[in-house]
Amino acid sequence: MSVRNAFYAQSGGVTAVINASACGVLETARQYPDKIGKVFAGRNGILGALQEELIDTSLESIDVIAGLRHTPGGAFGSCRYKLSTPENKPAEYQRLIEIFKAHNIGYFFYNGGGDSMDTAHKVSLYSQKMGYPITCIGIPKTVDNDLPATDNCPGFGSVAKYIATSVKEASLDIESMHETSTKVFIMEVMGRHAGWITAAAALAMDHENDPPHMLLFPEIDFCREMFLARVEQTVEDHGYCVIVASEGTHYGDGTFLSASRSTDAFGHVQLGGTAPILARMIKDSLGYKYHWAVVDYLQRAARHMASAVDVEQAYAVGVAAVEYAMQGKNGIMPTIVRGEGTEYTWSIGEAPLEMVANVEMKMPRHFISEDGLHITEECRRYLEPLIMGEDYPPFKNGVPVHTRLNRACVEKKLPPFNV
Amino acid sequence: MSVRNAFYAQSGGVTAVINASACGVLETARQYPDKIGKVFAGRNGILGALQEELIDTSLESIDVIAGLRHTPGGAFGSCRYKLSTPENKPAEYQRLIEIFKAHNIGYFFYNGGGDSMDTAHKVSLYSQKMGYPITCIGIPKTVDNDLPATDNCPGFGSVAKYIATSVKEASLDIESMHETSTKVFIMEVMGRHAGWITAAAALAMDHENDPPHMLLFPEIDFCREMFLARVEQTVEDHGYCVIVASEGTHYGDGTFLSASRSTDAFGHVQLGGTAPILARMIKDSLGYKYHWAVVDYLQRAARHMASAVDVEQAYAVGVAAVEYAMQGKNGIMPTIVRGEGTEYTWSIGEAPLEMVANVEMKMPRHFISEDGLHITEECRRYLEPLIMGEDYPPFKNGVPVHTRLNRACVEKKLPPFNV
């Protein structure tokens, strides 16, 4: 078998540990010099392939690559760009194959969510049809934890740990202040369609009545009356109320709370923020003093509070992607498989890309309590192992150290392409 | 000298390390059994004294007290309640003295900001006048870093480290995504009148042009045109723009941005949030895709990202407060004194309470760059040592362990008092 180069790209919203997967890919690929020549990484994801901006990772030192393990964000650049189908837009697929041919690329490792698995699958099929077969392996990544066929998704455990830790800490603050000041605290988290991150906030609880007292899932229609009644009851019972709300909290008709019909004095629709909308609702109806937080990008970038299990798994799926390719496998994605038994164990499995593509795994109903406002014990048992262990980055001058790539691109061989 | 009891109370907004100061007070007081009997802690701050809710800390174990060092929030409860003057409301001061007499309290340790130092000072004077002299020692605490007479305030270093770390991490996220998605990220931080926390965000920078690209201080009047021009220029130069804004960002006439005249469809004034206001301004004028975060309580509760220097100093001012009292000193506050020389050193000094009371130390103009939108090198040299070192809490089940006090109160001896 001749030596072929590989192409690696990061796709969609980044996570605290997507670079750990990159690290796994690059370190493992270097162990197969008889099969894999260079690994090129797409500058800004798949755009890098279309625009022939191929970062030559062979120019990056071993230390810099090792540092990817503790560096959040997407070190090569990511993008929100979904390829169409080969039928609708064959030019894009043709271009990919041309680029791969021009740079002797035989392996395509695509690190992303459901859309990306779909793209990898289509490239695999199309490349065979075009007589230039590419080995396509997907590498799972998403803070939303919504990919099928895998027990959990690399990226989720770390945001889960960050959210649980942050809510636990902030709840002590509200508890301290509630006698004369803040009675309600609302924290808005990511997960527009799936409530996994919201659910993870419950891991802050040591005991049954500990905060957070209420969780608002995108899987459950929001009911204003029920919500306000529960806030009032909680403040009466405990003196204060801590709420964690998904950014995707919505009414029964599907309207997001954050897209409420409120407009400002100039007629502009008010932009975003489920938490401030809930805060106003409480203030108007119950009069409680409130605070709210929207952590946004911080939650998925918080490598300083990464889950050790998550870092390990993110690295492992990167390693497995290359190993599978070396074994001649194609059109698959490494998965996380949970072991049987009470003690948490995990191993790497595999799933065909077509099984993973474009399926969104929401929270199952039995993971959500009957009233729709909290999680069940079963859900807790599922979530808890995923946030285990701390994996602190190195610090310098009081802040985390992050690796910096050269990102030098190889010389272009083809004419430009308009995306 | 006879054995007297002591009273300790936490006041105002809490911090990640105010309990470390409590730990210093309680551990040190136990070393003087011939002078200090029990330490009573006010349940919910000074309200605990007025309402005779005195937590008997002698019932708390050594381990539990040691655990205060890594527990955020105010473990005894805090409050926002400012005593009036003895002239305006003598009943409150009389009540305090009665409580202190009834429980043989001879020492008053008040852990708070400028208002609390003022109260401690007034209690000291009033108690002498009433013939029941109390030794009053203030213990500095504020995330805002705005107390005079001390080089810095316990509580600030940890929020500074958290903000610098968070901005550094989130900036990698925006950098990864900016090619096809988010161009502007705005993070809102605390510090309504003083811009120290905003300034600390600059510690995220390794190099001159690194994010955050712009800081909005409460010390500098906000200019919409200049702001938008700078955002546009930064996006042109770097592809994206990271902004850190104080919650107290205001126009030249003093109006906070967060109190903008916008109202919703029902005529309600829109509630809070400097960051979303700035985001809308950018969207409307420049059309850039944005994200924003408001960390609120999370920043001052983030004990998981505490500065080791800050924890050490918070503990040390608690220790010093008791030591000073044992030396017969009165009406003072322990301070942090910065050593001379290039290497950072610090020691504990003291300042009279009347010098500290009700003075708000804003950022000096020479700490802010000429254009008003960043910090100077001198400011960086001041800030950097304060975030040095990590001091991680213990973790269990993936989240930080926090100490839980019994908070058992001593039996009341006096009739109720209405506050």
UniProtKB/TrEMBL annotation, chains A, B:
Its cofactor is Mg(2+). Keywords: Kinase, Magnesium, Metal-binding, Transferase. Coiled coil: none annotated. GO terms for molecular function: 6-phosphofructokinase activity; diphosphate-fructose-6-phosphate 1-phosphotransferase activity; metal ion binding. Residues 9-323 form the Phosphofructokinase domain. It comes from the Eukaryota. The keyword Magnesium applies. GO terms for biological process: fructose 6-phosphate metabolic process. Signal peptide: none annotated. This is Pyrophosphate--fructose 6-phosphate 1-phosphotransferase.
